[in-house]
Write a structure and sequence with these properties.
6-stranded antiparallel beta sheet, 69 strands, 39-stranded antiparallel beta sheet
Length: 1152
């Protein structure tokens, strides 16, 4: 104890002795609004100033104990004990306008009045003038180095580098760089339009002749060519522009070498009738748990790209996709996703070289282009993944298939190992055979018994012997079921070293302004397994494309454009990105929906030739007629022809008509099918003036797939007619659109066409903003389907709903302010498993206490930290492998009344009412949402709060009364958990004299919780607290406070009674532009009668031991000479019964 006192004293002397530091540069004001979903980690803007941070959850202010903030990186971690839906964070940052590598949308700064008011009291100092450097290079950022330690945790190095350089190095040469080595955890950011890259590192040098970029960058080449590629990489990219002379207009050289951040994949999602999501993205071999590279995804619905945040939400951490109310998902929709993902370490490199030569004197008449691409695993592949000689042999024998190795390996017993430990036993099965089984440890093993770390891999539904189960053990546990009764096997899928190469030539010629020729040739080499020679002979293939266009040929009716293209793809030709249209299979009647997926490469299965021609007659800007002819040939397997016509007419703003008709004929020798597909669609709109536009949409399809030599229809021979009249209205303050659709379908039943049902669909959108006092936005999608009994199994759901309604209202005198949100959607939901992951003190919030003494961490033995930087575990909810159909309801209403704006006698009074309801229920009829029925609700939360304030903003006195009720239901992997909680609070504050203020608080809390799987989480707590505090403030720079707090708590089931007396003393010293120091000393005494340990006792005592406890803390920041800043955080807790515990964080930052 005396050593800790000496350490604190020495640091205090150092603090007082330092010279005056340099002031900080001017700051920027920001406010972010975030949705609290499955994540508790939010990435904001870096270089935040701690004293300016204000956090509100659902309109209520949060103190610093409810979240952990990394101000340098701008990462906020919300405590799991805090529940809510909408998080608002306002803060100020140093004015470093860093340019992220990958950025879709950059939010504009917003200056809230509350932040401006608070900053006027303590304005930030302007940056001291410095001598201008010889160059215009600006250096901005912060470098932080420090340590985090404690007597019950290992020493952790705190390191953060966020450095930006921008400016002109020499004449004509500019430098732009962003360096960062901070370890920022990935979080789901798919609910916002703004996407930041994590751990960005790049340096860019640029002049008029080219640029060089090192670090993170996005490579994008030739979107419509055979060499098309789009990747997020880490490495080096060089681009050089060489001037031309004579017929040579110029040359551009691009070359890059990098490491791929993830594996490229295209996945086709089969939608479920009435389910908006979530739909899971998986790895190339079906891995259910992948990490999607942020911003790498492109989602297509019916062939059209969607917008993240508007049309869909994505959780990058869990790889799940959910569609918003704007896009109603039904069984006939077509969904495909192209994305990059990672599952662990990667040694895959990516090399590119491209040379582009422009030709022509005066105008460009042609070009030549050569490209080389290579992606593959490096020579250190085996070392990176820890492959043994046996693993290498298995890969050599696997060819292009999968190779595995046993997933069990003996390890020493460690109760805090970041994985579940297993024992091995031999069991006799029902048929008399024997099988080796791995069983998860339920208690510490006897000395000398061998334990195993076992890796389980997903091998397909019903193809394994193990299943995932929910248990009290911390971690993902797999249980043996028997051969063919599970989805997992105790094997590790061996990563396969691959190599893909492509070389290509592309040329274009434009001899006349209206005549253009273009052609390209490419050769690919793809080896799915570099260690094996079994399939190497089939790895090389060629492809070519030729295109010609005659543009703007004058004819009596207008202008004609003609184009023709041939594309040849050899068998096993491998491309780096998709080169076919998104809906290639539908375009040629290859399949009802495109089912072609990719596992990092698009591999052409057989030789394919496509010939297509187009003729377009442009009568004027609003009228045109188009004809298309095409032929597809896949050697020995498929042949198809296609004819299409499109018409667009506009009659002087009186009417607008679009019509398209297609006819496809096909023959599939593999399936022995002859197909015919007839499609047509039309859209007619008639503007009526004043923004009113009625419209009518008509869609018709008839697809017949017959067995060769027979009239029997095959599966997929569908037909439907759809009509959708609608009305749109657009005004300066209003946008509205509503449509009512009817769809009649036919499908195949026992070889003949039968009526498959009909559906009515209502879709609408409304956005109305008449002024600053009112705004609302509504998106609605509803579908009701009637299905004959014979097709009922294909379409089990009869109703689909997706509704989102937001609004804001404020009375003219601000007497009342109302905000609301209402959302309903049909979806699938997984069962969540609670797991605690060891992350270290930076983001950990929990500690492990072995309450039952079995030596193994149980889920209910992880409790919130009691000292800052003490927690090293983070709570994570992992979704199950299967999903259940559900309907989700979300309601939030907040009403704030200030009667004083209307009646002067009630001026001191403020009323705030909050209602929150979240219910994810299996009751698709949505009749029991508000009841949170345990038999139907999968996850629900109901909270009702009433707050009453008197003189809320008065600086000298005020009072508040609040009461809140909370009810939750959650069906977890370990069983059902229920909670009923009631909180009441009364607070009064009064300034006795100018520097003195007294405050009194009384609180009552009743907490009942029931858990089917964890007996320690079944309790009935009652707590009562009284607190009297006195605060002395001198010149807003020095503040002393002392309090006496008495609390009494009981747990009825265990007959536990706890009395606690706490006497916290705090002192805060601050000086503008110098620093801030906060000292805390708190004696506490605990009297307890009942069980000596357990979760209930921990909650009632706040983790304090029986008898006297002493809590101390020091937090400070100090500006040092040379733009340095010292940060100290030391916290300790001592008691005779529990010993001494302390944590220390010491950091030194250099600010540029």
């Amino acid at each position: 104890m005396w050593r800790a006192g000496v350490l604190v004293g020495l640091l205090g002397l150092l603090w007082a002795a330092v010279a005056q530091g340099q002031p900080f540069p001017p700051v920027g004001l920001w406010q972010d609004t975030l949705a609290v979903g499955t994540t508790r980690v939010f990435v904001l803007r870096p270089f935040m100033l701690m004293p300016t941070v204000r956090v509100w959850l659902d309109g209520a202010a949060l103190d610093s104990t409810a979240y952990h903030l990394d101000a340098v990186q701008g990462v906020l971690v919300l405590a799991d004990s805090v529940q809510g839906q909408q998080l608002v964070v306002s803060y100020r940052t140093l004015p470093f306008r860093l340019n992220p590598v990958y950025q879709r949308y950059e939010a504009l700064p917003f200056v809230p009045a509350a932040v401006v008011h608070s900053e006027q009291k303590a304005p930030a100092a302007a940056k001291a003038p410095v001598s201008p450097p010889e160059t215009s290079l600006n250096v901005e950022g912060r470098i932080t180095r420090g340590v985090v330690t404690g007597n019950r945790q290992d020493v952790t190095i705190a390191s953060a580098l966020q450095l930006a350089l921008r400016g002109e190095v020499t004449d004509g040469l500019t430098l732009e760089a962003l360096l960062s080595d901070a370890d920022v955890p990935l979080s789901p950011e798919g609910t916002t339009q703004r996407l930041r890259a994590f751990d960005q590192i790049y340096v860019r040098l640029q002049n008029q002749h080219g640029q060089l970029q090192l670090g993170d960058y996005q490579l994008q080449l030739g979107e419509t060519t055979l060499m098309a590629v789009r990747r997020k990489l880490q490495g080096a990219m060089l681009e050089v522009h060489l001037p031309g002379q004579g017929l040579l207009q110029g040359m551009t050289l691009r070359t890059s070498g990098a490491v791929a951040r993830g594996t490229y994949r295209r996945q086709v999602i089969v939608p479920i009738e009435g389910v908006q999501g979530p739909y899971r993205l998986t790895g190339a071999v079906g891995e259910p748990f992948i990490l999607v590279v942020p911003g790498s995804e492109t989602v297509y619905l019916d062939g059209q790209p969607l917008v993240r945040g508007t049309d869909y939400l994505i959780d990058y951490a869990t790889g799940t996709l959910t569609f918003t109310a704007r896009r109603l998902i039904t069984a006939e929709r077509r969904i495909s996703v192209e994305f990059e993902y990672t599952t662990g370490n990667s040694a895959r490199t990516f090399l590119t070289t491209q040379a582009h030569l422009a030709l022509g004197a005066g105008r460009q008449v042609g070009f030549l282009e050569a490209t080389f691409l290579q992606e593959g695993d490096g020579r250190a592949f085996g070392k990176t993944f820890g492959l043994t000689a046996a693993d290498t042999l298995a890969l050599r024998l696997a060819g292009d298939g999968l190779a595995t190795r046993p997933g069990a390996e003996p390890v020493p017993f460690d109760p805090e190992a970041p994985y579940v430990l297993y024992t091995r036993e031999v069991r006799q099965l029902a048929d008399g055979s024997m099988d080796t089984v791995y069983v998860a440890l339920q208690a510490a093993p006897p000395p000398g018994e061998t334990v195993y770390r076992v890796t389980f891999s997903w091998v397909g539904a019903g193809k394994g012997r193990y299943v995932r189960v929910g248990q009290t053990l911390n971690g993902m546990v797999y249980s043996y079921r028997g051969p063919g009764l599970g989805d997992y096997e105790p094997v590790r899928l061996l990563p396969t070293p691959m190599r893909q190469q492509m070389i290509g030539l592309r040329a274009g010629l434009k001899p006349l302004p209206r005549l253009a020729f273009e052609g390209e040739w490419a050769r690919s080499r793809y080896d799915a397994n570099r260690l094996s020679l079994r399939d190497a002979a089939r790895s090389v293939a060629d492809a070519y494309r030729f295109w010609v266009q005659l543009d703007t040929l004058h004819v009596p009716l207008g202008n004609v454009t003609m184009a023709w293209q041939r594309q040849y793809l050899g068998a096993r030709f491998a491309t780096f990105s998709r080169v076919q249209p998104v809906e290639f299979a539908r375009r040629w009647n290859v399949a009802l929906r495109d089912e072609a997926e990719s596992s990092g490469v698009f591999l052409q299965p057989t030789t394919q030739i496509v010939d297509e021609g187009q003729l377009v007659l442009h009568i004027n800007d609003k009228n045109q007629l188009a004809f298309e002819l095409g032929r597809l040939s896949q050697q020995g397997t498929f042949r198809g022809t296609r004819q299409a016509m499109g018409l667009q007419l506009g009659l002087a703003d009186l009417a607008q008509l679009r019509y398209q008709i297609e006819h496809i004929q096909s023959r599939d020798w593999v399936r022995a099918e002859i197909g015919r597909w007839f499609r047509q669609e039309g859209h007619l709109a008639v503007p009526l003036g004043e923004g009113w536009t009625p419209y009518m949409e008509v869609l018709h399809e008839d697809r017949r797939q017959r067995l060769q030599g027979s009239d029997t229809l095959r599966v997929g021979s569908i037909a439907y007619v759809a009509l959708q009249p609608g009305l749109s209205w657009q005004r300066p303050q209003l946008e509205a659109n509503v449509g009512l659709g009817w769809r009649w379908e036919q499908d195949v039943w026992e070889g003949t066409r039968q009526a498959a049902g009909q559906a009515w669909t209502l879709e609408g959108r409304l956005q109305y903003t008449p002024g600053p006092q009112f705004r609302t936005a509504v998106e609605l999608g509803y579908r009701h389907r009637q299905t004959p009994p014979r097709f009922a199994a294909r379409y089990p759901l009869t109703e689909t709903i997706a509704l989102h309604w937001d609004g804001f209202f404020q009375s003219p005198r601000q007497f009342a302010r109302l905000t609301w949100r209402y959302a309903v959607r049909s979806e699938r939901t997984p069962v969540l498993q609670e797991v605690y992951v060891r992350t270290g003190p930076e983001f950990g919030q929990y500690i492990w206490i072995d309450f039952n003494g079995d030596g193994l961490p149980q889920v209910d033995e992880f409790v919130p930290e009691t000292l800052p930087d003490e927690g090293v575990y983070e709570r994570v909810l992992i979704p199950s492998d299967t999903f259940m159909a559900a309907t989700a309801l979300e309601t939030r209403v907040r009403l704030e009344l200030m009667p004083g704006r209307q009646w002067a006698t009630l001026r001191p009074l403020t009323l705030v009412t909050t209602l929150e309801l979240h219910d994810r229920s299996q009751d698709v009829a949505a009749k029991r949402f508000s009841l949170l029925d345990p038999s139907r609700t999968l996850e629900g939360r109901l909270r009702l709060a009433q707050e009453v304030y008197l003189w809320r903003l008065h600086p000298d006195y005020g009072a508040e009364l609040s009461i809140a009720g909370l009810r939750t239901l959650a069906r977890r992997a370990i069983g059902l958990e229920k909670q009923h909680r009631l909180d009441g609070r009364i607070g009064v504050r009064y300034r006795v004299l100018a520097p003195w203020q007294l405050s009194f608080t009384a609180e009552v809390q009743r907490d009942r919780q029931m858990s089917e799987g964890l007996s320690s989480r079944t309790y009935r707590l009652m707590q009562r607290r009284l607190r009297l505090e006195a605060t002395y403030t001198l010149e807003a720079q020095r503040q002393l406070s002392g309090a006496v707090a008495l609390s009494q708590g009981t747990e009825h089931e265990a007959r536990l009674v706890v009395w606690m007396l706490r006497m916290p003393l705090t002192a805060e010293l601050s000086q503008a532009r110098q620093g801030r120091l906060l000292l805390r000393l708190e004696p506490a005494h605990v009297w307890a009668n009942g069980p000596p340990s357990g979760l209930a006792r921990y909650l009632l005592t706040d983790g304090l031991a029986g008898g006297w406890n002493l809590i101390a803390g020091v937090d400070g920041q100090r500006a040092l000479p040379g733009n340095l800043q010292l940060t100290l955080s030391y916290h300790a807790r001592a008691s005779a019964a529990a010993g001494f515990r302390h944590t220390l964080r010491l950091e030194l930052s250099a600010i540029f």
